[in-house]
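Dear colleague,

Thank you for sharing your sequence with our group. We've completed the structure prediction you requested, and as agreed, I am returning the results in plain text so they can be pasted directly into your records. Please verify that the sequence below matches your submission; if there's any discrepancy, let me know and we will rerun it promptly.
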Amino acid sequence: MLLSLGSICCVIIWVIVGTSYTKLHPFWVLFSAALLMAFLLGLDVLITTQYVVVGFWKALKSVGLLILFGTFIGAALELSSGAISLAKGVLKLLHRLPLPYAISFIGYLVSIPVFCDAAFVILSQLNKTISKQTKVSLKGLTVALSTGLFAPHVLIPPTPGPLVAAANLEVDNLFLLILVGSVLAFILVVVGGVYGHYIIKKDRPEIYTTPLNFAQDFTQKESPTPNFYRALTPILVPIVLMTLGAIVPHIGEETLMTKVVDFVTMPVTALAVGALLSLRLNTTRHGGFFLRVLKKGALQAFPIVMITCMGGALATVIQTIPLEDYVLHISTFTGLGILIPFAIAALLKTAQGSSTIAIITTSSIILPLLPLLNLDSEMGKVWAIMALGVGSMTVSHANDSYFWVVAQMSGMNVKEAYRTHTVGTLLQGVVGLILVYLGHSLWSAYYV
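Please find the predicted structure tokens below.
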């Protein structure tokens, strides 16, 4: 028992050190972590190779195409300025709301298909323009945008983190994960908006008395972009299809039509439809849009898929440890329940910086513990992913690349970024933990 638990601790330490203090790519860190785990456990070289290959291939089959199609949608929104169109559309629809909440909702919508760091780069100029025209504190709007982008990034598929966690924990109902993640992320986005509101009121208390009245004029400026509803289609249609897929199996007998609908509403097919619809976002007459989307999407997807699959290899090696047998008689362990995935993910996130690596590694570690924690049901797995998702938000600071994107693109120094962005992600993580703990407790009381 001590050897196995010590091996896991050594691997966690290596993942932290390898991703934080060396120049190794996370792929090689996770690969070496899998080999280190196998060596510490005394596994045969041939068996270790088999575990690595099987784990890598299993992860590739589970999430490879999902990540690829998701990055295609994000690339198309970025290259066509569809992300800007979405932002302007949200501003127009929510122009009566206080500014930070409207900005947070922009982040919520855009971050689902577009990675949070890339989305912040795309939208930072829009944020600066709004701040200049309204004379509202840029720091407050920056927090609203950065936290609005961050919550969906760690909680809602098809972003890589929660998608990989679903594969590692063998979640069958991806729609259920999207539904719960969307609700939780929405609440945490509001938390970010509240904190942005607080910063604005603190900086300029006399400014924040009128709604966003300039939105109607502002949305008509700049170069042509896809209209709001066309830009929204590649995001909305896959969600609607997966929703339909969750309903159809429970209606009547199985027929040819239900089989066809079942195929169309599979997550891979639904995202493929979204990727095809994203090609309609090209508003220029120049050709080559498809090739540019294909190139950019593939370049974004490749390193993510490689990291994800190597995380699957590490997970397969870890799963050879009978952790549930070791802790079966430790009564205090089961009482911790949903706090376990949160604590591990928060430790990894805070120590090494990457939310995605924190999610991948944590989901690999906790899989054998799910029965012991009473999280082995479909809904239990969803709660576990929510817990490690909010853990991976806590906190974003100087070893996180997203921290530097937010600081540099908004013109803040390190001290200001710590007092705004870092505190905002800490608030989101703490509130997220409280919500997940309460939600899981209520679910356990009535359904377990």
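Summary note from our side: The CA atoms of residues 191 and 428 lie 6 Å apart.

Kind regards,
the structure core
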